[in-house]
């Protein structure tokens, strides 16, 4: 019998229904939920991140939500450290952790480990690189920027540094990986409906209040979150006409669809090297996971 601790990883693109699926599992078993979302870590960023409401969090508590302010930075390495600590704590309480979210870099770091001692992000250097990075292919942009950032800091290629350094890999866990990958046309409809609801319940007001409370800088990771970047640019513009607002909303919709596309790409890459069960509809996922864990 394996001594590895079971961990359920539930991954999917934005608006795919993975959070609702995790909550249903929570209702039918002895679980705790850990958020795997680089935007949900920020306090006061609620509507634009589709963060579970306070009432929903009371019914379905999530770890790693609201842990830093939008002025702070949270790395993949910090996520792995926090997630491993929480996984061990949850098992010590006799429960099984469900990790749910769409930040595939976090999942990859947890599954494969991270090279240690790479330099931390330097956001002044990164901002300068981004100004020249408009022609980068969207799917490769973050990887290229990080590689250039490391080279400017260390003078050495990131691949060379990674090859030289040991990785922190949590071998003691038995990962059960599930991917929720709905049809893209259906997902696009869900994204559009979600954004429409966000605008209706006050997303723009939320961003305006964030700008006043925190005086957000554009090069902070929180400011670059999908939807927030477009709203910040709009609110800083002198043209606040209805036409300008409509263009901003269109840009936010396009950016969210691009995010989903990148998440699909990340997931397929992970599926090449890790064992996965993939669901193409929420109903299929509900039925199969209920049979496995209900």
Q: Walk across the major sheet and give the strand order.
A: 3-2-4-1-7-8
Helix/strand structural class: alpha/beta
Helix content: 40-55%
- Helix tally equals 12
- Please identify which CATH superfamily of the largest domain we are dealing with: P-loop containing nucleotide triphosphate hydrolases
CATH class of the largest domain: Alpha Beta
- Unreliable residue runs: none
Oligomeric state as shown? single chain
| Strand percentage | 5-15%
Mean pLDDT: 87
At CATH level 3, the topology of the largest domain is Rossmann fold
CATH architecture of the largest domain: 3-Layer(aba) Sandwich
Please report the distance between the alpha carbons of the first and last residues.
22 Å
Could you tell me the number of beta strands? 8
Largest sheet: 6 strands, parallel
Overall spatial form: globular
């Amino acid at each position: 019998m394996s001594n590895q601790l079971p961990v359920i990883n539930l991954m999917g693109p934005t608006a795919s229904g993975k959070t609702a699926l995790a909550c249903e599992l929570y209702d039918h078993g002895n679980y705790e939920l850990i958020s795997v979302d680089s935007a949900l870590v920020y306090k006061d960023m609620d509507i634009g991140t589709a963060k579970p409401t306070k009432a929903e969090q009371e019914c379905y508590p999530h770890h790693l939500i609201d842990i830093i302010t939008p002025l702070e930075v949270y790395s993949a390495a910090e996520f792995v450290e926090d997630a491993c600590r929480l996984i061990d704590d949850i098992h010590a309480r006799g429960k099984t952790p469900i990790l749910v979210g769409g930040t595939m870099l976090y999942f990859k770091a947890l599954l494969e480990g991270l090279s240690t001692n790479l330099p931390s992000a330097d956001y002044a250097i990164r901002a300068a690189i981004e100004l020249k990075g408009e022609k980068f292919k969207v799917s490769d942009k973050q990887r290229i920027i990080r590689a250039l950032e490391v080279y400017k800091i260390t003078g050495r290629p990131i691949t060379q540094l990674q090859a030289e350094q040991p990785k922190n890999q949590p071998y003691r866990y038995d990962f059960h990986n599930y991917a929720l990958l709905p049809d893209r046309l259906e997902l696009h409809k869900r994204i559009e409906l979600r954004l429409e609801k966000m605008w209706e319940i006050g997303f723009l007001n939320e961003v305006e209040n964030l700008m006043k409370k925190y005086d957000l800088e554009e090069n902070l990771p929180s400011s670059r979150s999908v939807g927030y970047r477009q709203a910040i640019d709009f609110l800083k513009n002198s043209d606040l006409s209805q036409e300008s607002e409509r263009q901003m909303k269109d840009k936010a919709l396009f950016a969210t669809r691009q995010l989903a596309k990148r998440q699909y790409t990340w997931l397929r890459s992970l599926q090449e090297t890790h064992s996965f069960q993939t669901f193409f509809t929420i109903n299929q996922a509900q039925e199969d996971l209920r049979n496995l864990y209900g």
